[in-house]
UniProtKB/TrEMBL annotation:
GO CC list: cytoplasm
Protein name per UniProt: Homoserine kinase
Keyword Nucleotide-binding in annotation: yes
Lineage of source species: Bacteria, Pseudomonadati, Bacteroidota, Sphingobacteriia, Sphingobacteriales
Organism (species): Pedobacter hiemivivus
Binding positions for ATP per the UniProt entry: 92-102
UniProt enzyme class: transferase
Reactions this protein catalyses: L-homoserine + ATP = O-phospho-L-homoserine + ADP + H(+)
Known function: Catalyzes the ATP-dependent phosphorylation of L-homoserine to L-homoserine phosphate.
GO molecular function terms noted in the UniProt entry: ATP binding; homoserine kinase activity
Enzyme Commission number, as recorded: 2.7.1.39
Length: 311
């Protein structure tokens, strides 16, 4: 039995434009790391957090990593086990790339490893959703499911939970740019309309079905023309500087489709290769620099592994 483990869990792109709360995929970078050790002292303690600029709580009941570790221990009948945790944030908080998800998933994968993998990654998803509920008030799975399972994921149903791993073109890449502006997930979610017109819902259903079909069929054109959101993006895009200009630049540079990652402010484009993805990130960053906004960029294939042990 292991006494300690170091785990990396990946960032994710949730919604994938038209699939609000039901679609997401994992990327290779960025992500978060958790170091976890078994100790003789009962209880879960959070020793250290780095990379968060002091923004995250060290209280083990309020931090998603430690709080969900406690729930896991209760579930397996080991509530008195001793655990020490270090969280190393390797990705920006509030970026729309599943920051809380990456931390929670790294912690869950770590504690499950220490206790001989008593649950499958799929069985860990409901625990990770509890972490999302603690972090942003709503237990959605479109970040945590792909972070745990890797690849492209569809949440067909939340009650009962029904998660489907989707095929996708193997050369699909994501060009991600994070403009360093503040868009809290809770605020972004509160902006969304609670009621929609039936004609808009029909359009959205068609786009989600088209995107899933395009992934199955390796049909880039179908994927691209399905990446349209008439329900959420029109509201959330207001919070992202020059969003429509960024979209135009990405599409002119060869993007298959373009949209907001999660609740933003990160934006992403899907491309057929790394070269196009790099060209897009450079153009978007150049534009943001011209309007005095710093940004970070990431280019990645779809991550097929989910969390991994680093040591």
């Amino acid at each position: 039995m292991r006494k300690s483990v170091k785990v990396f869990a990946p960032a994710t792109v949730a919604n994938v434009v038209c699939g609000f709360d039901v679609l997401g995929f994992a990327v290779n970078e960025p992500g978060d790391e958790v170091i976890m050790r078994l100790t003789d002292k009962p209880g879960v303690s959070l020793l250290k957090i780095t990379g968060d600029e002091g923004r995250l709580p060290l209280n083990p009941d309020k931090n998603t990593v430690s709080a969900i570790a406690k729930q896991y221990l209760e579930h397996i009948g080991r509530p008195d086990a001793g655990i020490e945790i270090e969280l190393h944030k390797k990705m920006p908080i509030g970026s729309g790339l599943g920051s809380s998800s990456a931390s929670t998933v790294a912690g869950l994968f770590a504690i499950n490893t220490l206790f001989d993998n008593q649950l499958t990654n799929r069985e860990l998803v409901p625990f990770a959703m509890k972490g999302e509920e603690l972090a942003c008030g709503y237990g959605h799975a479109d970040n945590v499911a792909p972070a745990l399972l890797g690849g492209f994921v569809l949440i067909r149903s939340y009650s009962p939970l029904d998660i489907i791993s989707l095929p996708f073109p193997q050369d699909l890449h994501a060009a991600i740019v994070y403009p360093e502006v503040d868009v809290p997930t809770k605020d972004a979610r509160q902006m969304i309309r609670s009621k929609v017109y039936l004609k808009d819902a029909v359009t959205q259903w068609g786009n989600v079905a088209g995107l899933v079909s395009g992934l199955f069929m390796n049909d880039y054109d179908l994927i691209g023309r399905s990446m349209t959101d008439i329900l959420v993006e029109p509201t959330r895009s207001i919070l992202i500087p020059d969003f429509e200009i960024l979209r135009a630049l990405a599409m002119e540079s060869g993007a298959i489709g373009f949209g907001i990652s999660g609740s933003g402010p990160s934006v992403f484009a899907l491309t057929k290769d790394a070269e196009t993805a790099n060209r897009i990130t450079q153009k978007l960053q150049h534009h943001l620099k011209n309007i005095a906004i710093n940004s970070l960029a990431f280019v990645s294939e779809v991550n097929k592994k989910g969390p991994v042990i680093l040591d």
